[in-house]
């Protein structure tokens, strides 16, 4: 059967990268690009997530799967996919939006595959946790440490998220209790792999906190992040300590977080503890977070194309056999993975 896949937000950095990776690995797939300005090709569709009237082309083009790589605050595309029995994959949502969309989806009758992924790195971190520990319910604690380079080629969405949320509290989890915290506080030193070395890492919000605790029932989950520049990392911590972000406008905060380089590595490391042992898995993406996010989305799409999963609501890691997911990552030429006990 012909697979018609629509990438909404396909003209953005991550959307373009998904189209490139997905098309190169699956040349038989017909890929449509949805954007607010349309395009010159018959596969370029005018779709604005704020205007439901533009969605009629989704049915006209017999789209089998929608990949959402642009922020849809009101979940109009999600509702349309459910109402029209179209498979749906969302890789965009920060934690509050993900929680809201998930609750919306599970309260509706679903006759397609509705898949939510973390808005950070396409949900691949939770997939790696499931590989390291075959039974999620035996894990007592997961700690995630993130290394982000200001030289990384980044899209607008990550900068916009930080600008909107840097002054707002979020939660991590301690013994199943939500603990209210803020970005760039509570630093600790962590010795990163891949030659990075010891760095100060600060509180950081990713949707995997919610997924690992509320969905996979892991009692203690927290995430910390460092920048490649020690000075920038320290400066952001200092700004948060004196509540400097609180007095800045959204536009001014966007200027702080909106820089994008020409490309650099992105690294994250996961510490997984149970009563008897501690394990660590480390991932390095030589082409940065946009490439890794797009690869993650592609791997999720490929699982959906196999048509093995039943119609219901998923989180993206639930589509995969953990061993197959790890092998797909290891086989990708710009991904390096290390594991330690």
Automatic annotation (TrEMBL):
The organism's place on the tree of life at top rank: Bacteria
InterPro entries recorded: NAD(P)-bd_dom_sf
SUPFAM superfamilies: NAD(P)-binding Rossmann-fold domains
Protein name, per record: Saccharopine dehydrogenase
Species: Chryseobacterium tagetis
């Amino acid at each position: 059967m012909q697979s018609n896949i629509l990438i909404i937000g396909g003209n953005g950095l991550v959307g373009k990268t998904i189209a490139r990776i997905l098309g190169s690995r699956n040349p038989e797939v017909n890929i449509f690009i949805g954007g607010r300005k349309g395009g010159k090709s018959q596969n370029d569709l005018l779709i604005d997530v704020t205007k439901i009237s533009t969605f009629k082309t989704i049915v006209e083009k017999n789209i089998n799967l929608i990949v959402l790589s642009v922020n849809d605050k009101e979940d109009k595309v999600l509702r349309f996919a459910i109402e029209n029995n179209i498979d749906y994959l969302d890789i965009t949502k920060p934690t509050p939006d993900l929680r809201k969309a998930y609750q919306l989806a599970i309260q509706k009758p679903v006759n397609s595959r509705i898949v939510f992924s973390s808005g950070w790195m396409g949900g691949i971190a939770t997939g790696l946790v499931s590989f390291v520990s075959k039974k999620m319910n035996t894990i007592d604690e997961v700690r995630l440490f993130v290394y982000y380079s200001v030289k990384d080629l980044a899209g607008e969405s990550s900068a916009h998220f930080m600008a909107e949320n840097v002054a707002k509290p979020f939660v991590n989890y301690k013994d199943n209790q939500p603990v209210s915290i803020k970005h760039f506080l509570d630093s600790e030193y962590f010795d990163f792999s891949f030659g990075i070395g010891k760095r100060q890492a600060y509180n950081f919000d990713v949707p995997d906190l919610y997924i690992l605790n509320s969905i996979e029932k892991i009692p203690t989950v927290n995430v910390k992040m460092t920048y490649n520049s020690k000075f920038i990392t320290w400066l952001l911590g200092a700004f948060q300590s004196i509540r400097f972000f609180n007095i800045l406008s959204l536009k001014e905060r966007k200027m702080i977080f909106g820089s994008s380089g020409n490309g650099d590595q992105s690294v994250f490391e996961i510490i997984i503890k149970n009563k008897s042992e501690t394990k660590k898995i480390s991932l390095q993406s030589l082409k940065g977070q946009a490439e890794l996010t797009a690869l993650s989305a592609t791997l999720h799409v490929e699982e959906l194309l196999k048509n093995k999963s039943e119609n219901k609501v998923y989180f993206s890691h639930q589509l995969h056999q953990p061993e197959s997911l790890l092998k797909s990552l290891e086989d990708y030429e710009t991904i390096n993975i290390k594991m330690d006990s």
